[in-house]
Structure formats: structure tokens, C-alpha cells
Amino acid sequence: MKKVYSANNLMEAQIVLDLLEHAYIPARIFNQHAQGGVGDIPFTHAYPEVWIIRDEDYERSKCLVQTYEKTPATTGIIYCPACGEENPANFQLCWKCNAGLEIALYSGNTSK
Ligand SMILES: [Zn+2]
Question: Domain spanning 2-70 has what CATH number?
Fold first, then answer.
């Protein structure tokens, strides 16, 4: 188990979780109830965290997370959720690794 992302809110954590799952990386969200009952949660664990199950997925997961974090809200260029390569926004598949790009579009449109 490794932590790959600390989210500001549960929605961000869920988007990252979806990205990982679409890349066939098993992952879980911890502290997902922190938004509702802060009084019950130690303050050091107040933010939702995304953890991957298999340590060997760590590098790929960090790449996905970085892609999510830098995906621009504007159209024009999107980043492949699998390999991080830049692609024209109208591409359906990454030119480099053939991964589907609709996930990158999705996160870009909803995060800003
Ligand atoms: Zn790619």
C-alpha cells in the first residue's frame, strides 16, 4: 500500500481514484468521511487520501496523478492519463500509447 495523492476534497479524491481504476490500478480512498465529521477524525488525517493496493503500480500512479494535476481546464492540449504525453484535445486515443483520453477531458472540465 502506498499513498499517491492527498486531495483537498472528496471529489478530487474520487476523480483520481477513477483515473487509477481506468488504468487498471487497484486503489482506495481513505478518510473519505472526513468532510462530514471532522470532530471524530484526528486533524492530521482530515483530508481524503488515495492509496494504491500494489506498490509496483506506484510510478504509473504518480504519473496519472501528475497528469490530473496539470491538466488544463482550457481546450487545445490534453495530457494522456496513462503516459502523460500531450495530445490535441480532439484526439480520442493517445498517439503514443493508445490509451483513451476521455478521462483526461473529464477531469479537466470538472476540476476548475
Ligand atoms: Zn499515452
Answer: 3.30.70
